[in-house]
Design goal:
The protein is an alpha+beta fold. It has a single domain, classed as Alpha-Beta Plaits, CATH 3.30.70. The protein has 8 helices and 4 strands, in the order ααααβαββαααβ. The protein has a 4-stranded antiparallel beta sheet. The longest helix has 18 residues. The protein is flat, with a radius of gyration of 15 Å.
Length: 145
């Protein structure tokens, strides 16, 4: 693990908020988000889905900076319909390699709700906090079976 110990100094409520917000900034990295939304089949965009997010914090204060980002971004995630009830600190990869500092799922009512968050100008104004906190992230959309 890169800096799991730094994440463990966060309060559980701060870690949960991290999960809600970090997903959002991951997509800001993709300049083609509008293209991705346009390419989504209508049936998929109307269904709820989960976004898996894995984060790797910067070694010097990344976890604390991310907690600051969560405080700022949490209300925007909720405003646009995102919900998360837990975040996790990976303890051990049993098969394969995985050393993220924090992982979580966010449930979105539909793809339009998710993209509305990313396009919200007020959210965009605080999204730099996420970039300042992490060295890498992984974002994967999961559909319910």
């Amino acid at each position: 693990m890169n800096s799991v110990s730094s994440a463990s100094t966060l309060l559980p409520s701060e870690i949960m908020r991290i999960g809600l917000v970090s997903l959002l900034l991951s997509l800001l990295v993709f300049s083609s988000l509008n293209d991705a939304r346009a390419a989504e089949p209508a049936a998929v965009t109307e269904e709820s889905f989960f976004m898996f997010n894995a984060l790797w914090f910067k070694a010097d204060g990344g976890a604390a900076k991310y907690a600051e980002y969560l405080q700022a971004a949490g209300p925007f995630v909720a405003k646009h319909g995102g919900k998360s009830d837990a975040s996790y600190s990976p303890a051990q990869a049993l098969i394969g390699e995985f050393d993220a500092d924090l992982v979580f799922l966010i449930e979105w009512p539909n793809f339009a709700a998710f993209t509305s968050l990313i396009q919200d100008p007020d959210y965009q104004a605080i999204s730099h906090l996420r970039t300042e906190a992490i060295v890498d992230s992984l974002l994967i959309r999961f559909d319910k079976l």
